[in-house]
Design a protein that fits this description.
2-enoyl-CoA Hydratase, Chain A, domain 1, 6-stranded mixed beta sheet, binds octanoyl-coenzyme A, Lyase 2-enoyl-coa Hydratase, Chain  A, domain 2, 256 residues, alpha/beta
Length: 256
């Protein structure tokens, strides 16, 4: 399928998605959300895809929701625009396969929220993060008020959202907002290496680990541990699990 705001490449089990609207610093508009949902439908059907990577074209990852589109919205339109974004990002978070944000530049407002909905974030040393909505008289609308405090703690979430300050990749690393910062020129090489490694791991194990970690976040330690033992045992029903351990004992790579 052809997209106006997205570029998609499939490489060794990895779907590399580039948000491509560089003239507006990849700002998210309604057309983007329609296309992105179509793409998720398409990728969901392709069992050869084991990892997704999301990045942005040019100097921005995503500089936020499209301010030009939002400027004249009324209550109903704003509600619809916010809910569309929330549903889309929730859907992304619930993808069975890992989703990595390769944050190449500005990740502001809705762009920071998109990065937060990915499983983890690898940032270029030139990346900038922030929730500058208050500068526009707004607040985050794609669940940033909820995900940021869960990921980076209440103090950091309140600091970023109430101040509207933009922070560096190193500051984001210190806050736990990103997992790794790498030189700008090696970002995609490093992310793709990591994604390819993840794509080569036992796919049932990777998917189950993601599901349990995410579900466990919403429950008690006791119930989460039960989810884990259930999932752990279920893996033994898959021939690939036996193959992983057999390959180790036979000192060879697994043939999943
Ligand atoms: N929306 C629309 N256009 C944008 C956006 C945006 N978020 N960001 C940048 N652009 C456009 C600029 O208007 C400019 O267009 P043009 O060339 O036609 O004038 C072009 O991109 C390049 O931008 P700049 O010239 O400003 O580039 P600079 O390098 O000087 O500055 C910045 C880069 C600092 C990133 C600056 O562009 C900026 O501050 N952008 C806005 C950042 C922002 O406030 N983001 C938050 C938006 S609100 C939001 O995301 C809410 C999410 C929840 C929505 C809920 C729905 C109701």
């Amino acid at each position: 399928m052809e997209y106006r705001n997205l570029k998609v490449e499939l490489l060794n089990g990895v779907a590399l998605i580039t948000i491509s609207r560089p003239a507006a610093l990849n700002a998210l508009n309604s057309e983007f959300f329609t296309e992105f949902n179509d793409l998720l439908n398409e990728l969901g059907k392709d069992t050869s895809i084991r990892v997704m990577v999301i990045t942005g074209e040019g100097k921005a990852f995503v500089a936020g929701a499209d301010i030009a589109e939002m400027a004249n919205m009324n209550y109903d339109q704003a509600c619809c625009f916010a809910r569309t974004g929330q549903k889309t990002f929730l859907r992304l978070e619930k993808m069975e396969i890992p989703v990595i944000a390769a944050v190449n530049g500005f990740a502001l407002g809705g762009g920071c929220e998109l990065a937060l909905a990915c499983d983890f974030r690898i940032a270029s040393s030139l990346a900038k993060f922030g929730q500058p909505e208050v500068n526009l008289g707004l607040i985050p609308g794609y669940a940033g008020t909820q995900r940021l405090s869960r990921l980076a703690g209440m103090g950091n979430a309140l600091f970023l959202i109430l101040s509207g300050e933009t922070i560096t990749a190193d500051d984001a690393l210190r806050m736990g907002l990103v997992q790794k910062v790498v030189p700008a020129e090696t970002l995609m090489e490093e992310v793709m290496k990591l994604a390819t490694k993840m794509a080569s791991n036992g796919s049932h194990a990777v998917r189950m680990a993601k599901e349990i970690i995410r579900k466990g976040r919403e429950t008690t330690l006791h119930d989460g541990s039960n989810l884990e033992s259930e999932a752990f045992s279920k893996l033994f029903d898959y021939p690939s699990t036996k193959e992983g351990m057999k390959a180790f004992l036979e000192k060879r790579k697994p043939n999943w």
